[in-house]
Amino acid sequence: MTDTPTNKTQSEGENKLPELNQALWQYDGQPGQLIPLLQRAQETYGYISEKAISYIAGITGEPEAKIYGVITFYKQFRLAPVGDYLIRVCDGTACHVNGAKDLLEVIYDELGMDGSRDTSDDGTFTVETVACIGCCSLAPVITVNEDTHGRLTPMKLRKVLKRYKRRAKKELAEATAAAPAETSSAGA
User: CA 79 to CA 13: how far, in whole Å?
Assistant: First the structure.
């Protein structure tokens, strides 16, 4: 699999602690800096890890509970890694009246998710609703990473999702096949 902004693992993020350190070194104790620090942590890790929360709390002197409260208040922040495929379901007015909620149910069903978590168990798909994608004439609309899919019916959506599931399976197979070759060449 390719390393995209939506494919960050915790270990990869932990290796980027110096990048987060740079933002924290610039912290000068002024009020109002917590959100920019959290944004930097999320840029670094792909989400805000417990380690980042502790680290930021230590630098700013803010209690971890307060930092967690800020993270959970703002929808822009994530406490878990994003899947390889980020599915955004538009729930703007045009999409809402044209069946966005039905599409969301189809997505959960097709991906074996119950809606209690936004990322699939295997970490491949993350689903989120957004206020508007800006393609009202194509309602209802979803995006998968940078690809837009409009005028969706439940049947069309199932076909779209099956294509992404096949692609994810193929990428996993390719990555798995490449891993032993990388390991044996590293030992040479």
Answer: 13
Same domain? For 125 and 155 the reply is yes
Nearest 10 degrees: CA dihedral of 131, 135, 137, 142?
A: -70
Q: Which long-range contacts (CB under 8 A, 24 or more apart) does 62-68 make?
A: 62/34, 67/34, 67/38
User: Does residue 131 lie within any of the structural domains?
Assistant: yes
CATH number at residue 91: 3.40.30.10
Per-residue pLDDT tens for 74-110? Answer: 988 999 899 999 999 999 999 999 999 999 999 999 9
Q: Which residues pair with residue 129 across a beta bridge? A: 89
User: Residue 69: which domain range?
Assistant: 10-73
Please give the model's pTM, rounded to 2 decimal places.
0.73
The angle at the Cα of 172, spanning 168 to 176, to the nearest 5 degrees, equals 175
Residue 3 belongs to a domain = no
Q: pLDDT of 24-67, one tens digit each? A: 656 667 778 899 889 988 988 889 999 999 989 988 899 999 99
| Distance in angstroms (rounded) separating the CA atoms of residues 8 and 176 | 17
What are the tokens at 120? 């699939």
